[in-house]
Amino acid sequence: MLETQEGRTVLLIQSRPERSTPPEELVLRVQGFVLQADLPPIRRNQYAPFSLLYVITFEQTGIVLRLPANLSRLIDLRQSVTIGGLDAAPFADAVSGVLAIYEHFKLHLRGHNLRPWKPGQEGTYLALTFGNRYLTPAKFAEGEPVADLSLDVDPFNILRPLLTNQVHLQENVVEYWEQESVGTSGQSFRRIKPDLIVPGTMVELQVAFAAVKLGRKDFVFLPKLRAICDYNQSALKRLSLKTVSPLKKVKRKVGYGGEGEQVVEESQRRLKKMSLQDQEHTAEYSDVHMST
Question: What is the spatial distance between Cα 109 and Cα 88, in angstroms, rounded to a whole number?
């Protein structure tokens, strides 16, 4: 565990052989079907007061994002995606893995109150929701890499004019990818726009975990969204819909790009297991229980 922002945030990090080794956030992957997606871009700002709120509409999904009149609360704006495994046993294993991570945070935060967390449910099926805030308070941004808010989130310059003491950091970035077939020998990946990811899509998520302090002693458990990979139609034809991988460790930084933002893989075998390990990272992925 790593405490940041003056102890207000606790991150799950990779195990380090030595204390001098720079900490690195532990990124895991999980696959399933999109049940709900609250993703950018912001397409139209109605700027019409709604009680004490402003209203922004995400046209592609019909989602209405309400902005508080107190613009300091812009910090609460977030994107998220909910996935399910349709009763597949490996997805249930992934849910158990997230619960184990939650218990790990609870143990670390003895003396504090980590608020209860449990997986979601869609009908009779288990579901997991992962999200990421668009913004970070500027007072916590010193020395942190700043990202371009205009690329995916705010291409029409709707949100940026409202910002005062908030910034969009690399920490707030979610990457969006699509898996493509390359003949019969492998796979490649390309970046896509987030509005292509809709309910019903089979995806792989790269996720991380944190606990954030609220008030004096309370912490809230946050499953964080780092990247989404959309399995397109050509890839779906080669997938067994009865297999969904549980949480696995990512042996790379967030994303799927290699040189030229494409990674060709020996995927005939791995794709059947819904695994996206590339040739440069041949070490086996560890189960989430081993990571905790």
Answer: 32
- Whole-model pTM? 0.76
Which residues make Cβ contacts (< 8 Å) with residue 107, sequence separation at least 6? none
Question: 144 with 196: CB under 8 angstroms?
Answer: no
For residue 143, how far is the Cα from the chain centroid? 23
Structure-token pair, residue 140: 């916590």
CA dist., res. 82 & res. 88, Å (int): 16
User: What are the 10-residue block averages of pLDDT along the chain, 292 residues in total?
Assistant: 76 76 87 92 50 42 56 85 91 94 92 92 92 90 85 86 90 90 70 91 94 88 95 60 60 60 37 34 33 32
Question: What are the residues whose beta carbons fall under 8 Å from the beta carbon of 155, sequence distance 6 or more?
Answer: 41
Q: How far apart are CA 201 and CA 230, in angstroms?
A: 7
Task: Output phi, psi for 216, to 5 deg.
Answer: -85, -40
Q: What is the DSSP track for the chain?
A: -EEETTTTEEE-B---SSTTSPP-B--EEEEEEEEEEE-----EE----BTTEEEEEETTTTEEEEEESSGGGGGG-EEEEEEE-TT-HHHHHHHHHHHHHHHHHHHHTTTSEEPP---EEETTEEEEEEEEES-EEGGG-TTSPB--TTTTT-TTSSSGGG-SSEE-BGGG--EEEEEEEETTTEEEEEE--GGG--TT-EEEEEEEEEEEEETTTEEEEEEEEEEEEEE-HHHHTTS-TT-----EE-SSSSSS--GGG-----HHHHHHTT----TT--SPPPBHHHH-
